[in-house]
Amino acid sequence: MAFDRIALRRWASRALVVGLMLFVSACTTVPKPAQAPLPADAPLGDCCQKPERYPKGLVALAEPFAPTIGRMVAAVVWRKGDLLRHDAAIDRLLADLRPLDVVAVSNKGRLSGHAIPGHFGHVAIYVGTEAQLRRAGAWDHPAVRKHHAAIRDGALFIEADNKGVHLSTAPAALDADAIALLRPAGLGAMRRRQALTGFYQRVGMPFDYYFDLDATSCTFCTELVNTVLPEMRLPTRLVYGRRLILPDEVVAATTRGRTGFTFLRYVRAGRDGWETLGRVKVEEELLAEWSKPERPPQVASLER
Which of 5, 10, 47 has its CA nearest to residue 248? Predict the structure, then answer.
């Protein structure tokens, strides 16, 4: 009998996790309503203002299962990012990237790309090739030295995701439909070297599935950038009682000169081609995303 009760509790827990994951999936695959054209001077202050798109009760119910749900969500991939279809786009990006550049990633072919509201769901940090790290004076630092083989094999990025803080190759980090490229401004050579080694020193940290900026034993993608480069002044906001940094808000604030990053370009790909766009287009897409209804129809109906 005791065994039956334990088995029943385990079954119920797993059913709840799967149900919540499917619920979130259903909420994020609602057909998008047509959006009226937005004025070119629409205030980007509207971006990211109301990110609490799900009922607080549902979030509280899911909270104990956050790591399990996070791993399950990360495993759901419908397709590779369209950018990977175009070798010329990847080559162009890699030729332009410099150590400490940040790429904000939008990939709607993954469930994780819909897990938070907005256009960009993730950021990764370009830390560079062997030659670039040598020029920066970081190649022989102990935190970098242990990764020499991986860097020579193409691990040019560092990111924080469900695998924790780890190095990534270009095909992994640039698995996207669109990216915004941001570059830190005003850093001297010594500070750049310090920041590069700071990112490498955090390789191996666990991922923060609760997205809590005040938790220091684990981290999430934008928190990693904020921790190593606090002078970039990334915008924070309170969401479900925790301070976090939204990738969309980082890009939006940067396009308006409110962070220490400089906005370089917006690259968007489709099945048949890719294009390099500028500040106006990325702002249009951010505004269109955040002008949608605050709650998906299925979520709103639960509260009636």
Answer: 47
0.70 cut: is pTM over it? yes
In order of 83, 139, 148, 248, 271, the CA distances from 59 in angstroms are 33, 43, 42, 21, 35
Q: What is the CA radius of gyration of the chain?
A: 20
Return the closest-CA partner of residue 127 out of 220, 191, 197, 67. Answer: 197
Distance CA 5, CA 18 (A): 20
Condensed to tens digits (0 to 9), the pLDDT of residues 214-244 reads: 988 999 999 999 999 999 999 998 887 888 8
Give per-residue pLDDT as tens, 132-167: 999 999 999 999 999 999 999 999 999 999 899 999
